[in-house]
């Protein structure tokens, strides 16, 4: 049933702690979609400790990468999914993004260390991939409190009515439709940036914009075969409202754009997706403008 969704799933790894739950989740997704998993290790040749020495250190990094990708590939294959591996040298984030474009990947899956914000694929690299990629990215967190459930039964689609949000909604609701999952369309009016003197006049406008944004997501979802939808308009700080909604409504995954409405901070910002990627207790699909 998922065959039309993904053919190639790119799984970048760094050898630091390939979260077994994430690898297993990718294998589940690949099995459902009948997709090939490409396990990629990028030997980071941009670090001072590498660039100031001769090729022996680079060779050691490459050998480590070969060990890492083979280990991950064994896990993927043991769960019945097709798998290929590759080891490259370069600056990890742009190399991952370029690789995905070159091989026609339909999805990049990357684990982040979230709140710790560490380098490598544990934080800054995965967040740079989210910002740079025109290919949809599925981010999981390495913290033990994350819920990795597949198939998803409830998918949350936050929206601010922007074109980026509509593009993300199309991807997320296509997946939800194929999985026969419920779509929760949520728009958040950020009341923290409204001055008290303008709250009465602009608040109503923002509320109407938010409702229209939610209705647009529902229309997209229904066009993509989603049978069950829930509409929600909330007030508050967007990232906090999204987190609360995930916790209280049994959401299994979030799908959202990486850029928000230009020239306004009232409803949903691109930065909200970055906070959600770092903190959400469920997988987060992010889709850039070029996806």
Verbal overview:
The chain has nine helices and ten strands. With 291 residues, the protein is an alpha/beta fold. The protein has two domains: 8-141, 3-Layer(aba) Sandwich (Rossmann fold); 154-285, HUPs (Rossmann fold). The protein is globular, with a radius of gyration of 19 Å. The model is unreliable at 114-120 and 262-269 (pLDDT under 50).
Reported for the largest beta sheet, the result is:
10 strands, mixed
Count the domains. Answer: 2
Could you give the order of the helices and strands?
EHEHHEHEHEEHEHEHEHE
* CATH C-level class of the largest domain: Alpha Beta
Task: From the 3D structure, determine the CATH topology of the largest domain.
Answer: Rossmann fold
- What average pLDDT do the residues reach? 85
Radius of gyration: 19 Å
Question: DSSP helix count?
Answer: 9
Strand order of the largest sheet: 3-2-1-4-5-10-9-6-7-8
Question: Main attributes?
Answer:
291 residues, alpha/beta, Rossmann fold, 10-stranded mixed beta sheet, 9 helices, 43% helix
Task: Compose a concise summary of this entry.
By secondary structure, this protein is α/β, with parallel strands linked by helices. Helix content is 43%, strand content 22%. It folds into two domains: 8-141, 3-Layer(aba) Sandwich (Rossmann fold); 154-285, Rossmann fold (3-Layer(aba) Sandwich).
């Amino acid at each position: 049933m998922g065959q039309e969704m993904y053919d190639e799933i790119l799984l970048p790894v760094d050898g630091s702690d390939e979260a077994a739950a994430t690898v297993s989740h990718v294998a589940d997704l690949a099995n459902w979609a009948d997709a090939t998993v490409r396990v990629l290790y990028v030997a980071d040749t941009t670090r001072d400790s590498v660039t100031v020495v001769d090729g022996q250190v680079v060779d050691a990094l490459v050998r480590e990468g070969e060990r890492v990708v083979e280990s991950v590939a064994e896990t993927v294959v043991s769960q019945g999914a097709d798998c290929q591996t590759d080891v490259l040298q370069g600056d990890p984030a742009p190399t991952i993004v370029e690789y995905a474009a070159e091989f026609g990947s339909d999805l990049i899956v990357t684990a982040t260390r979230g709140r710790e914000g560490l380098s490598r694929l544990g934080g800054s690299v995965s967040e740079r991939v989210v910002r740079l990629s025109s290919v949809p990215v599925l981010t999981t967190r390495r913290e033990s409190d994350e819920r990795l459930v597949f198939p998803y039964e409830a998918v949350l689609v936050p929206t601010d009515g922007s074109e980026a949000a509509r593009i993300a909604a199309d991807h997320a609701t296509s997946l939800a439709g194929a999985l026969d999952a419920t779509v929760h369309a949520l728009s958040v009016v950020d009341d923290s940036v409204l001055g008290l003197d303008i709250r009465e006049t602009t608040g109503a406008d923002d509320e109407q914009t938010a409702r229209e944004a939610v209705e647009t997501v529902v229309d997209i979802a229904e066009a993509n075969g989603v049978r069950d939808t829930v509409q929600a308009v909330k007030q508050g700080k967007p990232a906090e409202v999204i987190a609360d909604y995930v916790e209280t409504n049994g959401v299994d995954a979030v799908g959202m754009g990486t850029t928000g409405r230009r020239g306004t901070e009232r409803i949903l910002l691109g930065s909200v997706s970055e906070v959600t990627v770092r903190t959400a207790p469920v997988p987060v699909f992010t889709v850039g403008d070029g996806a």
